[in-house]
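User: Predict the complex.
Assistant: Input components as received:
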Amino acid sequence: SQQGEEDPQALSIQEGENATMNCSYKTSINNLQWYRQNSGRGLVHLILIRSNEREKHSGRLRVTLDTSKKSSSLLITASRAADTASYFCATAFLFSGGYNKLIFGAGTRLAVHP
Amino acid sequence: DVKVTQSSRYLVKRTGEKVFLECVQDMDHENMFWYRQDPGLGLRLIYFSYDVKMKEKGDIPEGYSVSREKKERFSLILESASTNQTSMYLCASSGTHRYEQYFGPGTRLTVT
């Protein structure tokens, strides 16, 4: 079953605008991660936020996590055409062996128009 | 630069054929994963391995098996391919106590 669900499913904006994507999940997590996928390619890890963190920044990316609402948001500021991609949130569950299992949502398709 | 490679970008097989998808990582990672990706469903975990010769079922293991004889290599096997296994297959790896996963470019498999 899908743990994370992204909203919106698709987003279309102009270059320079900000893009916000949301993710909701159902059960307690160890951390939450965001990945980007360019058309037909593999996923690239963007940012990880731990369950005891509320906000994290990386370049033009800002991620928030609200564990009480079981939700996260990814903000991309000053978007560029190169940001056009699908974005996935993944909730992580830690196992005793030191590995974690990720459960991915269905993704948000972002289109940034020049 | 970290690298996960997959044996084929595109593959076309016939129903009933045995299919091997290979994944190799050069980061000395302990953990390796196989996912399939279908439109509207995101990525779903098929199998993962946290050590050589160890494997664990993911969420959708039916119709698949895996092999990990060497640390750097993780193979996904479709014993008898069926049309409902037409999908994009993604391999990933991660280090122990490291939570981000590194993905290969994917193999788009079509079963006719």
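The two ends of chain B are 37 Å apart (CA to CA).
Let me know if you want any component modeled separately.
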